[in-house]
Specification:
By secondary structure, this protein is of the alpha/beta class. It has nine helices and nine strands. The chain binds nicotinamide-adenine-dinucleotide.
Length: about 260
C-alpha cells in the first residue's frame, strides 16, 4: 500500500470509529430500538447474499429463481435451488454479531428484529422477538392445499401426502408474493413507535421491505459494507461489516455501563 493510501485508510477508519461511537450513544439514549436485517447480516456465516451474483449457483440470477413464476413454470429448477439453499444452511451457524443482538435484547438495549433473512440465524442465536418478513427456509408446506410437509418429504421431492400434488415448497416469501401479514404489521408498528431503527446489511432494493426505513418514527442508522441507500436519510451511516461493527459497538456499550 502506498503512503497516500495508508493515510486515506487511516482517515476512513477514524471516521468510522466516530460514527460507531455516535451510534452507541443513540442506542444508549433510546427507549425502543428496532433492528432491520438483510442478507448482509448472514454473509459472515457463509450464506451468500443475492447482490454478488458472480459466485452464484449455476450463474443464475437468484432473484429470478426464487420466484412464484419459477415455481409454476419450472418446478424442478425451483426445487433444486431450495434444496441447495437448505443443504447449505446445515453447514452455517450464527456469528458473533447475531449473538450480540440476542444479548442486547436480553439486556433491554434492543426490542425486536425485523429480518428479510430466511435462515433463522437470529432465533438460533437466541433472539426472541424476530419478525420474519420473508418467512424461513427450515419449514415446508404444500403450495396447493397449504398443509405442512416435512423437510424429508421436500428433499425427496415427494408429492404432497394430503392432496397428491407436486407442490411442496419452503415457507418463504417468493418474489411475486405478498409478505406474511402478521410479520409485516408487527414490524411496521414497532418501527413507527421506535426511537431508533438500525438497518444492517441490506441493499434496500427489495420491495416492500425497502420502504420500512422511511417509516421510522425516530433516529435511523445504516450499517453496510458498501455505499448504498443514498436516497434515504440516515442519521448515522457506518461503512463496515456487520460482525465487526456490532462487536465494536458492543465493546463501547460495555464500557458505558
Ligand atoms: P441483498 O443481497 O440485496 O443485499 C445485501 C447487502 O448487504 C448488500 O448491500 C451487501 O453489500 C451488504 N453486505 C454483504 N455482506 C455484508 C456484511 N458482512 N456486512 C454488512 N453488509 C454486508 O440482500 P437483501 O437486501 O436482504 O435482499 C435480498 C433478498 O434475498 C431478500 O428477499 C432476502 O430474503 C433474500 N436472501 C436471504 C438470505 C439469508 O437468509 N441469509 C440470503 C440471500 C438472500
Amino acid at each position: 500500500m502506498k503512503e497516500n493510501e495508508n493515510l486515506e485508510a487511516a482517515r476512513e477508519n477514524t471516521g468510522v470509529d466516530d460514527q460507531i461511537k455516535e451510534l452507541a450513544a443513540l442506542i444508549k439514549d433510546s427507549n425502543k430500538t428496532i433492528v432491520l436485517t438483510g442478507a448482509g447480516m448472514d454473509t459472515e456465516s457463509n450464506i451468500p447474499d443475492f447482490r454478488s451474483k458472480d459466485g452464484w449457483w449455476r450463474k443464475m440470477d437468484p432473484r429470478a429463481v426464487a420466484s412464484i413464476d419459477t415455481f409454476y413454470q419450472n418446478y424442478d429448477l425451483f426445487w433444486e435451488f431450495y434444496k441447495m439453499r437448505y443443504n447449505l444452511l446445515q453447514e452455517c451457524a450464527p456469528h458473533r454479531g447475531h449473538y450480540i443482538l440476542a444479548e442486547w435484547e436480553e439486556k433491554g438495549l434492543i426490542h425486536g428484529i425485523a429480518t428479510q433473512n430466511i435462515s433463522r440465524l437470529h432465533a438460533l442465536a437466541g433472539s426472541k422477538k424476530v419478525y420474519e418478513l420473508h418467512g424461513n427456509i427450515r419449514t415446508f408446506r404444500c403450495n396447493h392445499c397449504h398443509r405442512d410437509a416435512s423437510v424429508e418429504e421436500y428433499l425427496e421431492k415427494k408429492n404432497c401426502q394430503y392432496c397428491g400434488k407436486k407442490a411442496l415448497r419452503p415457507k418463504v416469501t417468493l418474489f411475486g408474493e405478498s409478505l406474511p401479514a402478521d410479520a409485516w404489521d408487527n414490524s411496521i408498528r414497532e418501527v413507527q413507535s421506535s426511537d431508533l431503527l438500525m438497518v444492517i446489511g441490506t441493499s434496500l432494493e427489495v420491495y416492500p421491505v425497502n420502504a420500512i426505513p422511511k417509516m421510522a418514527g425516530g433516529k435511523t442508522a445504516f450499517i453496510n459494507n458498501e455505499d448504498r441507500g443514498r436516497d434515504y436519510h440516515f442519521d448515522v451511516r457506518i461503512k463496515g461489516k456487520a460482525k465487526e461493527v456490532l462487536s465494536k459497538l458492543d465493546g463501547i456499550l460495555n464500557e458505558m455501563e
